């Protein structure tokens, strides 16, 4: 699973996510050709991401989480296209999701089995058909993340940091090309945040992270600032964080 690999190429070409708006909603919608009212959640986005580490910062409701969900087809664009290594998230959804793993803020959203070992085995069911083979592979995954001693405990008996690492092990078990994480440190204390950051640093995958943790945001090759559904800055992490801080200081 380790070693070097080329970063994935993620392309967003005019990607827009819109939702219909009720007539009594207090928003400023646009109007479609048929007179329907729509609200833009994010976009238009014209981006090509080739870096190994990309972070995304923005206020709650800015559209950054929707941007992340576009990358593996959890959300499809209303207009435009999203491609990962040439695979279209609309036409090639299953193939994209095999290449792009997604981690949610709350690890309990992903840990659906009674124990971590069972969750890892569930993740491996397509790539390891035999029960014994799958169990052995799950053991190797748990060993890799230092979770072997926790694999047979109830996920509800684990700390927040242990759950987050376990959820990470589950989504990485099949060795995807891209890991997308939405606010992975929100529920963690500083010790577990630092542990998660060290784990992310060691991964060979392309990693895209949305975060309010500005220290984590700086640990990237490129940072996007999202504000009011648009990418308003795209560039070096330190400059991006300075831009974001300035935006949040404005009433």
UniProtKB/TrEMBL annotation:
CDD domains per UniProt: ABC_cobalt_CbiO_domain1
Pfam families registered for this protein in UniProt: ABC_tran
Entry annotated with the keyword Transport: yes
Gene3D superfamilies registered for this protein in UniProt: P-loop containing nucleotide triphosphate hydrolases (3.40.50.300)
Record-level Gene Ontology MF annotations: ATP binding; ATP hydrolysis activity; ATPase-coupled transmembrane transporter activity
UniProt KW Metal-binding keyword: no
Domain ABC transporter: 19-249
Origin: domain of life: Bacteria
Sorted UniProt keywords: ATP-binding, Nucleotide-binding, Transport
Cellular component terms (Gene Ontology): ATP-binding cassette (ABC) transporter complex
SUPFAM superfamilies from the UniProt entry: P-loop containing nucleoside triphosphate hydrolases
The family this protein is said to belong to: Belongs to the ABC transporter superfamily.
Official protein name in the record: Biotin transport system ATP-binding protein
